[in-house]
């Protein structure tokens, strides 16, 4: 019987050591997973920032293309196109200040055109 107790005691010690090692490895895996998750979150935020910048640049380029089309148009046609530019940029989510800056127009003029267009 004494031998059985020794064998059981040794097995329990081995199980305890194995459980401790497993627990340490699990903690290490959890820490690695957390670092990876934080890294992925940062990359997603960075990508959103890049996407916002690209959207603004697209709006700016569209405005430039519209201006290039205006060179051969009459003054009435240019005004109509300018108004459409304002509404297109606004539909893309740009704020009045951004539209004003992109189109090189006073903020009040942009607000007036948008107010008249409603």
Structure in words:
The structure is a single chain. The chain has 118 residues and is mainly alpha-helical. It is 89% helix and 0% strand. It has one domain. The chain has helices at residues 2-70, 75-91, 96-103, 107-117. The model has no long low-confidence stretch (mean pLDDT 84).
Q: Which keywords apply here?
A:
about 90% helix; rod-shaped; mainly alpha; about 120 residues
Secondary structure: elements and pairs:
Layout: H1 2-70, H2 75-91, H3 96-103, H4 107-117
Question: How would you sum up this structure in a few lines?
Answer:
By secondary structure, this protein is an all-alpha fold.
Biggest sheet statistics: none
How many domains in all? 1
- Rg, Å, rounded: 33 Å
The mean pLDDT is 84
Question: Which structural class do the helices and strands define?
Answer: mainly alpha
Low-confidence parts, pLDDT < 50 over ≥5 residues?
none
Number of strands: 0
Distance between the termini: 95 Å
Number of helices: 4
